[in-house]
Write a structure and sequence with these properties.
With 603 residues, the chain is an all-alpha fold. The protein folds into 3 domains: 129 residues, Up-down Bundle (Butyryl-CoA Dehydrogenase, subunit A, domain 3); 219 residues, Orthogonal Bundle (Neurolysin, domain 3); 98 residues, no CATH class. It contains 27 helices and 5 strands. The strands form 2 sheets. The protein has a 3-stranded mixed sheet, with helices on one face. The longest helix has 37 residues. It is globular. It binds zinc ion (ZN). Zinc ion binds next to helix 19 and helix 21.
Length: 603
């Protein structure tokens, strides 16, 4: 077995260089104090905005500067804490950074209401004013919220209700993180192991059907033991959404959730419609998988099995990084040149070390430095593909930070997964070409893409449909109970999987284990982002120079425009179902090819 690395034994060239944010902890302390004092100074500006343009400009500048500094303070503390999560000193730093963020939020609480209270037409004229060019997006965002912003006293009452509205989610987190025990389940070695939500996925990947079935049934039943309580919590969440939407004069909770990003409800509905159109192809894929697994009946717990193709791509980080650069070559020589700096300049924390945070992420949050990427690199295809994904986020931040002022550099969640997914598709397509004659390789690569489609486009859209239906039921005055929610969720599973799989009753409880349902109307963005990325990657690979230029422009936009408009610049119009349909066409092509490859194998 390999020796476990520690921060002391890992080669420094494979760790990120956090000193670009602050040289050391002493510099961090200095910055912390600056933000703290700056926040107090900002709070003192309350009541001055009516003095005129100069005062407003000063406030905008201070506000942007403080938020830029705060992100440095926060990211530095987070990265140091993530390097070794057991170091108390950095736990403390991160805690202080979080408190500082709340403090700054309190210090600047007056800002938006006071801006909105300026005489009619003031914000509109500032938006046109070149002196306010850096703050245009922020001002438009404020102005947009005006029709749904209430009087000072009413806003105060809503703010006071904030903690109450968060109670369902807090209760759910406490139940599922702390109190709930899913019991034991039998592993592949025949021994009983403690079942957790995180381990469920590993069990579901098992080629031993008894193992995955037991883990699945135990998990679903484990949740359903608390089914009435969880239904009450979720009903509470939905009621809180409805309360806030109604209080602010929205037609529905969904409209309220989509409004700040300027996403119309049609985008949501047309996603669902278009994905329904792809269920036939999904069923076709699942039937192929059923044959591949040698099953006579496919159950929902069979969907996650890793089919062994006997092929994997095992690259160390240097090799993986070189391959990443080759895969993204269609994005242009300068993209490759810029991206190639990442490993040499230590943007990336590569290896798993003792007590390091798990998983992977990219943080482009510090405006004045290059982005950072945390990995726990393994020599597998998954490791390679994670590198490409995170570098997609990193390069999106890199170009946005370089092009936009800090007040407009951060991009929204709606567009966040586009650049990362696009890179993954470029990688898949590059490898499919490179392994042209290698059937096992192609089965692995296409199988991987198909699973990505199933879990991101179909599964997340089904979740989106669940949320929408639950809110609509409540809006129509129906009571949300365990039975009504289970029945509705079961029906959705029947619709999505029923043509190819036996839909067992246990799946009715699955909605109980999805924490994302406590951030309402969020998951649909995974599906739309994925589809947009597929459509864009295909355009780039077609060799059309205009399409490439449009995509490259998109990478520089940060948060300077509404997300739908940014994607239009990139070349996809998410207000129509077309990009989703295009992505589903690609899915159908892949399913067809998968079938060809597998049937050729059997011949
Ligand atoms: Zn991502």
């Amino acid at each position: 077995m390999e020796q476990e690395l520690t921060r002391a034994t890992v080669d420094p060239k494979y760790t990120w260089d956090v000193t670009r944010v602050y040289a050391d902890d002493a510099q961090w302390e200095k910055a912390f104090e600056q933000v703290k004092e700056g926040g107090k100074a900002f709070a003192a500006l309350a009541g001055t905005l009516a003095q005129g343009k100069e005062a407003i400009l000063h406030a905008c500048q201070q506000y942007a500067k403080l938020n830029e500094q705060l992100s440095g303070v926060y990211c530095y503390a987070m990265m140091k804490q993530n390097e070794d999560t057991t170091v108390a000193a950095y736990q403390a730093l991160l805690g202080r950074a979080a408190s500082l963020a709340s403090e700054l939020a309190a210090d600047s609480a007056f800002f938006m209401p006071e801006m909105l209270a300026l005489p009619e037409g003031t914000l509109e004229s500032l938006i046109e004013d070149p002196a306010f060019a850096d703050y245009g997006a922020m001002l438009k965002g404020m102005l947009r919220m005006k029709p749904h912003t209430l009087s000072a006293r009413e806003e105060q009452l809503l703010a006071m209700a904030g903690d109450v509205c968060a109670a369902p989610e807090n209760a759910y987190d406490m139940l599922t993180d702390a109190d709930m025990d899913l019991g034991m389940t039998r592993g592949e070695d025949g021994k009983k192991t403690k079942l957790t939500d995180v381990r469920l996925l590993t069990f579901l990947g098992s080629r031993d059907r008894a193992v995955r079935k037991a883990a699945y049934v135990n998990t679903m039943n484990g949740y359903n033991k608390f089914g009435n309580a969880i239904a009450a919590m979720y009903a509470g969440q939905v009621k809180a959404d409805l309360y806030q939407a109604k209080a602010r004069g929205y037609k529905s909770a969904r409209q309220a959730a989509l409004y700040p990003d300027e996403i119309s409800e049609d985008v949501y509905d047309s996603l669902i419609d278009a994905v329904h159109g792809g269920i036939g192809t999904l069923s076709e894929y699942l039937r192929i998988k059923k044959e591949q697994l040698g099953l006579s009946v496919m159950h929902l717990y069979d969907m996650y099995v890793d089919v062994d193709t006997g092929f994997d791509i095992q690259l160390d980080i240097e090799e993986a990084f070189d391959l990443f650069l080759k895969a993204v070559a269609p994005l242009g020589e300068d993209y490759v040149a810029d991206a190639s700096r990442a490993l040499a300049e230590r943007w990336i924390d590569v290896y798993e070390t003792k007590n390091k945070r798990g998983g992977a992420y990219s943080s482009g949050g510090v405006y004045w430095t290059t982005p950072y990427v945390l990995l726990n690199h393994k020599k597998t295809y998954d490791g390679l593909s994670t590198l490409c994904h995170e570098m997609g986020h990193a390069m999106h931040s890199f170009y946005s930070n370089r092009t936009q002022p800090s007040s407009k550099a951060d991009y929204t969640i709606f567009v966040a997964e586009v650049a990362s997914t696009c890179n993954e598709i470029l990688l898949s397509e590059y490898l499919l070409k490179a392994y042209e004659g290698n059937k096992q390789a192609r089965i692995m690569l296409i199988g991987n893409l198909l699973e990505h489609f199933r879990t991101t486009v179909f599964r997340q859209t089904m979740f989106a449909e669940f949320e929408h239906k639950a809110h609509a039921m409540a809006e129509e005055g129906q009571t949300l109970t365990r039975d009504s929610l289970c029945e509705m969720y079961y029906g959705l599973n029947k619709l999505y999987y029923g043509r190819a799989c036996k839909v067992d009753k246990e799946v009715s409880y699955e909605w109980m284990r999805i924490p994302h349902f406590y951030s309402s109307f969020y998951v649909y963005k995974y599906a739309t982002g994925f589809c947009a990325a597929v459509a864009l990657a295909r355009g780039i690979l077609s060799g059309d120079a205009q399409k490439l230029a449009a995509y490259r422009k998109f990478l520089t936009l940060g948060g300077s425009m509404p997300p739908i408009e940014e994607l239009k610049v990139a070349g996809v119009d998410m207000s129509t179902p077309q990009p989703v349909c295009e992505a589903l066409d690609y899915f159908a092509e892949l399913v067809y090819e998968y079938r060809q490859l597998l049937s050729g194998e059997q011949a």
